[in-house]
């Protein structure tokens, strides 16, 4: 089946930028997503990008998509302690409809 | 905006009993809902696709007789964990999308349900 991979852990100082990377194998991916999950909580959709775009910016968040390399990244500018959470990359392919394949999640720790 | 509600948010049950989790779309109809499972400190894995008025489609390795899914209406899907065991303890979360939509921001997740089997 399709696969989505992420690095496990990222430590960053408050005020710095964070970059979380994701790779995927589904060449028919239509939408790619970034979700945030805080401890004991559900999923919060942060942003998404359509596969024919290569960049999307939304306030402190910038998503970059390299479709050729099947690489997705999420940059968080001016990272705050409240950004400490697990971040999941996910994708849905053309045939999958609204069914998502998730990466393993990247645990981001923001240090004061 | 569109809301998906799950109930209960937390449940503790005894080993051997069954527990039902509801996933309800509050202001839209959905012919398809998805059930995911998340083990502690792991990712979310799709368990099954719940199809309104027909049988659910289960992912490989998911026991359909253990995880019973019923999608009796366009706004409600239920997941019943039968004869629960401690290894079934997990976070279960559903998602749904309004009829006919396959666009980026129309996948709505419920709040999730924490199941602990003792």
Description:
The complex is a heterodimer of chains A (112) and B (118). Chain A is built from no helices and eleven strands. Chain A has strands spanning 4-6, 9-13, 18-24, 29-37, 44-50, 55-58, 61-66, 71-76, 85-93, 101-102, 106-111. In chain A, strands 2, 4, 5, 9, 10 and 11 form a six-stranded mixed sheet that branches. In chain B, the strands form two sheets. In chain B, strands 2, 4, 5, 6, 9, 10 and 11 form a seven-stranded mixed sheet that branches. In chain B, strands 1-3-8-7 form a four-stranded antiparallel sheet, with no helix packed on it. In chain B, 0% of the residues lie in helices and 50% in strands. In chain B, strand 7 and strand 8 form a beta hairpin.
Layout of strands and helices, then pairs:
The complex is a heterodimer of chains A (112) and B (118).
Chain A (H helix, E strand, L loop, with lengths): L3 E3 L2 E5 L4 E7 L4 E9 L6 E7 L4 E4 L2 E6 L4 E6 L8 E9 L7 E2 L3 E6 L1
Parallel strand pairs in A: 2-11
Antiparallel strand pairs in A: 1-3, 3-8, 4-5, 4-9, 6-7, 7-8, 9-10, 9-11
Chain B lengths: L3 E4 L2 E4 L5 E7 L6 E7 L5 E8 L5 E2 L8 E7 L2 E6 L8 E7 L11 E2 L3 E5 L1
Parallel strand pairs in B: 2-11
Antiparallel strand pairs in B: 1-3, 3-8, 4-5, 4-9, 5-6, 7-8, 9-10, 9-11
Strand content of chain B: over 45%
Q: What is the helical fraction of chain B, as a range of percent?
A: under 10%
Task: Sketch the major β-sheet of chain A.
Answer: 6 strands, mixed
- Look at the helices and sheets of chain A and give the structural class: mainly beta
Count of DSSP H/I helices of chain B: 0
Beta-strand segment tally of chain B: 11
What's the alpha carbon Rg of chain B, rounded to whole Å?
14 Å
Secondary-structure element pattern of chain B, one letter each: EEEEEEEEEEE
In terms of quaternary structure, the protein is heterodimer
Please state roughly what percent of the residues of chain A sit in beta strands, choosing from under 5%, 5-15%, 15-25%, 25-35%, 35-45% or over 45%. over 45%
> Structural class, from secondary structure content of chain B?
mainly beta
First and last CA, distance of chain B: 37 Å
Secondary structure tally: strands of chain A? 11
